[in-house]
Amino acid sequence: MLIEQLINGITLGSIYAIVALGFTLVFGVLGIINMAHGEIFMFGAFIGVVVTSTFKGPLWLAFLAAILVTAAMGYMLERFALRPLRNKQGVSHLAPLISTIGVSILLENLSHHIFGPGNHPFRASFAEISFQIGSITVYLVQIVIFVISVLLMYALSFWLGKTKAGKALRATAENLETASLLGVDVKRTITMTVIIASAMGGIAGILVGMAFNSVTPQMGLSIGLKGLAIIILGGMGNVKGAMAGGLILGLAETFVVVYGDSGYKDAIAFVAIIVILLIRPQGLFGQKISA
Amino acid sequence: MRKQLKKFAQFTALSSLLVLSACGGNQAAGDEEGKSSGGAVKADIGVISYISGPGAAYGEAITNGLKLAQEEINGKGEVEINLVIEDSAGKQDQALTAAQKLMNSENVTGIIGPTLSTEMNVVGPEADLNGVPIMGTSTTAEGIPQIGDYVFRNSLPEALAIPAAIDKAIEKYDAKKVAILYGNDDVFTKSGFDTMKKAAEEKGLEILTTETFQKGQSDYNAQLTKIKGLKPDLILASALYNEGAVIMDQARKMGIDVPFVGGNGFNSPEVINIAGDAANGLIVATPWYGEKEDDKVKEFVSKYEKEYGKKPDQFAAQAYDALYIMAEALTNAGEADRDALRDALAEIKGFNGILGEFSFDEEGDVVMDPTVLVIEGGAFKEFN
C-alpha cells in the first residue's frame, strides 16, 4: 500500500519534473515564463493519441511525431510570439508573458477544434505491460517515466555545463548583448532553447497520456500552473531544482491523499509556493541574486 | 464642401438607421399576424447550452436532440418552433448574459437549458422574475424546480436515480462496505455525493472512506490506491463521464474489480469509448435506455444516428423530449404567450415520450420510473 503510493508519487513527480525542466530552461535563458508550455505539452499528448489510436502507429513513431510537432510549435512560438517583442523600444518586460498567455489560449481552443472536446483514450499496448511484486502492480510505463525524467535532467545538465552550445546558452542567459559581442549567435541560441524546451513538453505529454490514459484539451492549464509552482519551489532556471521540486510536489500530493484529505491535493503546490517565497525566496536550489 | 459632405454623411447614417428600425418593426408586426391568422402556434424558444469548453459534448448532444425534435414538430404543422441557440460555455455569468439576451432582446416565449445545475441556479431566478418559463433538460441537482413557478425540468433528479441504482447493487452483490469518490468542485457531482451519502446511510452501509478529485484531473492513482487498500464491496462515484471513465480505467489497471455505482453524469456511451473493457461493472440509473423495445425509441435512435453519425445519449434524448413537451404545452396554450405556456406546462401529465411516461409534480419536478443499467461486455444492459 505504502510502496504503491510511493510509486504513484514518484511517477507523478517525474512527469511534473519533465514539464518543469522545459519551463526552467526557457526562464533561465530568456527570463520569461512561458505560459504556453502547458498547451504545447497537451499537443504532444494529442499527437501521441492520434498516432497510436487513430493511425495505429507504433509508439516510437508517436514519440518522434510528438517531438517534431512540438519542436515546430516551439519554433513558431519563438518566431511569432517572442522574437518580435525582443529588444524593442517601449515594450514592457511583461509583454512576452502576455503574448505566451495568448498563445496558450489559442492552442487550447485550436486543439478543441481539431481533436474535439472530452477525454481521448491512449491505446498503446506498451502502457498495458505490468508485473506483480507481491500484491503490488507496477507498470513498465511508471518506470520508463522515471528513467526518462532522470535521463533528461542529466542530459540537460551535461549539455548546459559541458558543451559549447550549452556554454553559449549560459552566456546568453547572463547577458544577451555581451554574449552577442563575444560571437555567440544569440538568435539561434534562443530559438534552440525554446525548441528544446517545447520538445521536452511534447515528450512529457506522451508519457502522461500513457500513464493516466487521459488526454483532454484542458490538461495543459493545470500542469502548466504546477510546473510554474515547481520552478519557484526548486529555484527559477535551475535544472536540478526543477527535478527535485517536481518529485517533492508529486510525492507531497500523493501523501496528502494517503494521510489527509484528497480535497487538498491541488492546494499543496500553492501552499508550497507561499512557504518557499517567505522562507527562501530564491527557491531550494536557487542562488541569491544581488540586485 | 467638407462640411456639406459631413452633413450628407450624417443624414445618410440617420436615415438608414430609420429605415432599419422601420424594417424591424414591420417584421415584428408580420410575426404577430402569423400567430393569430395561421393555424399553427408560432413560438421562439431560446436555448442556452454548453457548446464550447470542456463539457461541449453535452451541449452538442442537447442541441442535436433539440434540432431533431424541432424538425419533426414543425413538420407536423401544429406548432412552429424557432430555436434561438446561445452558448453558455458552462459558465454562470455567460449563461446569465445569454438568458437576458434571449428574454429581453430576442423576446422568446420559453427557454430550454441551461446545461449545468450551477448555471440554472443563476439563470432560473432571473427567468422566474421575468415570468419566462424555463425548462432544464440536464439539470439534475437538488432544488432546481423549487427556484420558482416558472422553472421546470424533465431531467431525472439524482435524488431519484442514485438510490434506485444503489438499491439494486446492494441486492445483487450483498454489499456492506462502500467507498465514495466524488468531484468536489462541481455542484452537480457534489449534489450527487450528498444523495449517495444519504442513500448509503439509510441502507446502513459502512462508508470506508470519502475521496475527492477535481475537474480535469488526470491522475487518480493516489485516491484509488487508498480505496483499494480498504477493500470495499462497491465504489460509489459521483463523477461526470470524462473523469469517471478515466477513474474506472485506472482502477481496473490497479486491480480494483468491484462494481462502480455512478450518478447521471457518469451515464454516457462515451464511458465505454474512453475506458473500453475497464468500463464493465458500472451501474447507473437512467431515464434513457436506447435499446428499449419501443417503437418511438427505435425511431429516434435510428434517425439520430443517421443525422449525426453516433448513438444518442440521455442528454440528446432528454432534450428531444423536452421540446416535445414544450410543443404539447404550446398546442394546449393555443398562443405563444409566456404565462399561458407556463400554465400549460404545469398541466402536463402522463406525457408519453421516448423516456417513458412523464409528468410534472406540483413543483415542476419530474415524476417517472428510472431504469437501472449496467455495463457488461462493452454495452449498457438492463440490470436485474
TrEMBL record, chain A:
Which topology term describes how it sits in the membrane?
Multi-pass membrane protein
Question: Mind listing the GO molecular function terms for this protein?
Answer: L-isoleucine transmembrane transporter activity; L-leucine transmembrane transporter activity; L-phenylalanine transmembrane transporter activity; L-valine transmembrane transporter activity
Using the UniProt record, give the first listed, main subcellular location: membrane
Biological process GO terms, please? Answer: D-alanine transmembrane transport; L-alanine transport; L-isoleucine import across plasma membrane
Compartmental location: Cell membrane
Q: Which GO terms describe its cellular component?
A: plasma membrane
* Transmembrane region(s): 6-33, 61-82, 94-116, 136-160, 190-212, 267-285
Query: Which InterPro entries does this entry report, sorted A to Z?
Result: ABC_transp_permease, BCAA_transport_permease
- The signal peptide, as residue positions, is none
**Alphabetic keyword roster:** Amino-acid transport, Cell inner membrane, Cell membrane, Membrane, Transmembrane, Transmembrane helix, Transport
Q: Which family does it belong to?
A: Belongs to the binding-protein-dependent transport system permease family. LivHM subfamily.
Q: What is this protein called?
A: ABC transporter permease
State the organism of origin: Sporosarcina globispora
Automatic annotation (TrEMBL), chain B:
Keywords tagged on the record: Amino-acid transport, Signal, Transport
Q: Name one GO biological process term.
A: amino acid transport
**Which segment of the chain is annotated as a signal peptide?**
1-28
Protein's name in the database: Branched-chain amino acid ABC transporter substrate-binding protein
Taxonomic source organism: Sporosarcina globispora (Bacillus globisporus)
The Leucine-binding protein domain is annotated at 45-369
Does the keyword ATP-binding feature in the UniProt annotation?
A: no
Classification via InterPro entries:
BCAA_transport, Leu-bd, Leu_Ile_Val-bd, Peripla_BP_I
Q: Which Pfam families match?
A: Peripla_BP_6 (PF13458)
Q: Which family does it belong to?
A: Belongs to the leucine-binding protein family.
